[in-house]
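We recall that each integer encodes one residue's backbone shape. We quote one record:
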Amino acid sequence: MTGLSGLEGTLVGRLVQSPILTLTTQVCGKNTVLIIFMLPVSFPLAITCSPPPNIANGMHDGSNKEIFDYNSSVTYKCHHNFSLTGEASIHCTTKDNITGVWNGPAPECTDEPINMVDLIIGIGAVAIIGIAVALNKKLRQKLFTALKLYI
């Protein structure tokens, strides 16, 4: 380019290796040069987590999603007759500001232990009902009314 006396090389060297567009035009009888450079620009990437782990005998409320954004959470629940052990909810976080990770392990669903008191009351109720059936109607009604208080 004429008229820049080496200025272009200095400018280009400082910004990037080469301009992507150079325009020369006449403004008021003088050559005017417009140089457009492509400068590197970075945009933050979205932090997402991989799908949360599935658990045996249970499920989480995010099974219909494919992408789990930063700070999103899922809540687990167990199938009937299973108890949740651990935190019910986990959320997507990050340790390095780049990769998403779940803040803790998924809970587990375990068989509910048999409560011995409930078992004894249940066996006792069956025995009492069996006796009441053999007795007269009035006594049977009183026993059933009394049992409703415990069941």
In short: Helices lie at 7-15, 116-134, 137-148. DSSP finds three helices and ten strands in the chain.
